[in-house]
Amino acid sequence: MSFLYFSNDCTRAAEQLKNNPRHKSYLEQVSLRQVEKLFSFLRGYLSGQSLAETMEQIRRETTIDPEEDLNKLDDKELAKRKSIMDELFEKNRKKKDDPNFVYDIEVEFPQDEQLQSCGWDTESADEF
């Protein structure tokens, strides 16, 4: 069986467990991604992988490679990457109720080298 099949199995099993009325009240505070991860650990154990191998495989599945061309992915894989990015965004997002929330942050970025000007931003208004 292919790895994608196992990945889809874990997703399906996690959705079924989370949506099961018998377990729903216990799992409503647990993200679907966490339940999927649990099933991935179980899948690795049952297939004879070591814990380190399973953790490395899960890390590869749940991180985004900044060099990867997302335009070349099929719709399912793209949706998976977007879901990972959305989860990371929500995890890092500062909300108004957070103790470290600051409304209007202004940051000065250090400039190590001279900025190069572009032709489009040096044109005068008379040239239009």
TrEMBL record:
InterPro entries: CEP19
Annotated Gene Ontology cellular component terms: centriole; centrosome; ciliary basal body; spindle pole
Organism: Cebus imitator (Panamanian white-faced capuchin)
One biological process term in Gene Ontology: microtubule anchoring at centrosome
Major localisation: cytoplasm
Localization per record: Cytoplasm, Cytoskeleton, Cilium basal body; Cytoplasm, Cytoskeleton, Microtubule organizing center, Centrosome, Centriole; Cytoplasm, Cytoskeleton, Spindle pole
Lineage of the species this protein comes from: Eukaryota, Metazoa, Chordata, Craniata, Vertebrata
The encoding gene: CEP19
Keywords: Cell projection, Cilium, Cilium biogenesis/degradation, Cytoplasm, Cytoskeleton
Protein name: Centrosomal protein of 19 kDa
